[in-house]
TrEMBL record:
UniProt similarity note: Belongs to the peptidase M24B family.
Known cofactor(s): Mn(2+)
Protein name: Xaa-Pro aminopeptidase
Enzyme Commission code(s) on record: 3.4.11.9
Species this chain originates from: Caldisalinibacter kiritimatiensis
Entries under PROSITE patterns matching the protein: PROKAR_LIPOPROTEIN
Reaction catalysis annotation: Release of any N-terminal amino acid, including proline, that is linked to proline, even from a dipeptide or tripeptide
Lineage, opening ranks: Bacteria, Bacillati, Bacillota, Tissierellia, Tissierellales
Record keywords, A-Z: Aminopeptidase, Hydrolase, Manganese, Metal-binding, Protease
Amino acid sequence: MKRKIIILLILLIAILSVSCKEHNNISKENNVYKKDNDKTVYSSNYRLSKDLIITNRYNLLKRIENNSAIVLFSGYPTEKIRFSPNRNFYYLTGIDRPNVILLIIKSKEVNKQFLFIPKSNPTLERWVGKTLKKEEVRQISGINNVFILNSFNPYFKKSISQYNIKNVYLDLGDITINTLASQIVSFDSPITQGQDFALHIRNRYKEINIKNIFPLIADQRLIKNKEEIQKIKKAVEITGEGIKYVMQNAKPGMKEYQLEAYFDFITKYSGAKEHAFLTIAASGENATIAHYQKNNSEIQDKELILMDLGATYGYYNSDITRTFPSNGRFTKRQKEIYNIVLKAQTETIKAVKPGITLSQLDNIAKNILSEECKRIGLINKESEISDYYFHFIGHYLGLDTHDPGDFNRPLQPGMVITIEPGLYIEEEGLGIRIEDDILVTEDGFVNLSKNIIKNIKDIETFMNKSE
């Protein structure tokens, strides 16, 4: 009897030991993420530094006419979506709270900067948490003039005459004030706070010119400094951890949304508060749909899985795509098509350097895909490649997943772009895309996501590594 009790105790200790080990390590030897490596989401490098924020405003003001006012809004919260600030507002203030207004007055004599924040409401704070105090706002933004929100309208009205304001710069997005008016009449889409305020200005102050500050800020945001690049690198690193965890756990019979859930868990556990966009988890024929969103199919044996995903860190985004086999082994045909896409991507990335444009990079990728697809008999002439490669090569990346910018603009050091060729063979239920995030440097490029495996041998080795 005593012997049985001793054996049971030994077994119990062993089980508890394994349980503790599993608790501290999300995975085993492949260790996608270890708990003891955890770093807080709110580390000092999460927010933009005050020095950078002040510099951002300084550089913008050099491009603004005298006798002008800038008005930007942080945005407002909704019940179903966690609040995320307007990116242009955040870029100039570092404030990521709702219902905050930035006002800047520029003339020959003065340069005044103000932030208007919601009044502290103890009852509301019991429901939604503490609001930022004035001193906190000053420390984050470098703006000393911080007032309560309800004082904005009277102060703005006073400033119009006091500083002889002739221009008001607002964030209208990629539209003009005239386009905005027709958009409202046709109910094409909801308007933003900036667009709404533009209509207010036009109706009340007919002598004032309304100017769109969006293209000026967008142009400035294209060139990242070291601090911004570090945030993108961190977002890419977290995304890479998520991709490894997905590959490690993928198998036939799962649902696509289960792979999405693995990515969600690891990225948020690793410090990403939000994702850059809705994750695409597309298996089999679903991968032939460029922006597939349902993520609800059952994954079949010998299918490829295309996952287009990205974590956000400090509001800076990553955007990565990897395609891998559900059972850990590529078929011969899958290898053939995959290597064509990989060749196109590799050669296009090699061409990245200052002076080249995204449009030129698209042509490089398209030419390689055309030649290779003709070689294997998928197409007969170059023009047919559009049947299988129907999107652009990439986009700018930063505070927005698709940072605004002209695809015919020569690339400059400090820009971050994506390179993402693909082939989508609907008749074979075969879709492959490979995407990396690329930093343009003085002498070429740096692949920020080079450590996320994409060669066939590396993928198969990783997915078939013993437990």
